[in-house]
Specification:
Elements lengths: L2 H11 L23 H14 L7 E7 L5 E7 L2 E3 L2 E7 L3 H8 L2 E8 L4 E11 L2 H8 L4 H9 L9 H14 L11 E15 L7 E7 L5 E6 L2
Antiparallel strand pairs: 1-2, 1-5, 3-4, 4-7, 5-6, 6-7, 7-8, 8-9
Helix pairs in contact: 5-6
């Protein structure tokens, strides 16, 4: 069976057009929003945590590679403040290389259970070695070892090789503190625009986007859904 024939056969068994629902959790008005989008984000994040949403700090990070190809992956938010959104990774990873070429990135928080999403557009900058070390040393020991074991984004022929690397490192660092890898650390995404989306009935969703002005203030616009 050809590829196209197989796809056509699969599509005949599933009608994705039937998957639909109304969004009725509640609307969003301008007077409900904080003047600072990071403060508004923290408010919504707290509600996501209190709502027992699985992985409320999971965020989709989008970058563009050297061929101009957009790529996305899920990373975990490890800190948020007016200065930006923090995550950690291997500095040899595909996302780190993309950031080195173009620091402009996008984050997406898909809080589907609350019928909400938040999009952040901004620039990524490396955090200081001291900040990265402080977080690394707070991680579980096996997570520290995994940072050493994986050369993130590089090909490997079998999972067993990765597990062998992990075992070797566990033996090497059996005693004492595990040092911080020089190829691992944090990034801070400094927001320049942020959008808050709340699902609405009949697909008339509520969207508000914040834009950072030259004087450091934020301008807010309501967008059509």
């Amino acid at each position: 069976m050809t590829y196209n024939a197989r796809i056509a056969n699969e599509e005949s068994r599933v009608n994705y057009e039937e998957f639909r629902r109304e969004y009725l959790a509640g609307g969003l008005e301008r007077d409900m929003l904080a003047e600072c989008p990071v403060a508004q984000f923290e408010r919504w994040l707290q509600q996501a945590v209190e709502g027992n949403i699985p992985d409320p700090t999971a965020m989709v990070l989008a970058t563009v590679d050297d061929e101009g190809f957009p790529w996305q992956r899920i990373v975990l938010l490890k800190g948020v403040a007016a200065s930006g959104f923090v995550f950690y990774t291997n500095y040899g990873s595909a996302k780190a290389k993309a950031i080195a070429r173009d620091s402009r990135v996008s984050l997406l928080f898909p809080w589907n259970m609350l019928e909400r999403q938040v999009i952040v557009g901004g620039r990524a900058e490396k955090m200081s070695a001291a900040e990265s070390a402080r977080y690394f040393l707070s991680r579980p020991r096996d997570s520290q070892l995994a940072a050493w074991a994986s050369r993130q984004s590089r090909p490997i022929s079998a999972r067993q090789l990765l597990e062998a690397q992990m075992g070797s490192l566990r033996a090497k660092f059996a005693r004492g503190e595990i040092p911080v890898p020089d190829f691992w650390g944090g990034y801070r995404i400094i927001p320049e625009r942020m959008e808050f989306w709340q699902g609405g009935a009949h697909r008339l969703h509520d969207r508000f986007r914040y834009y950072l002005e030259a004087d450091g203030s934020w301008r807010v616009e309501r967008l059509q859904p």
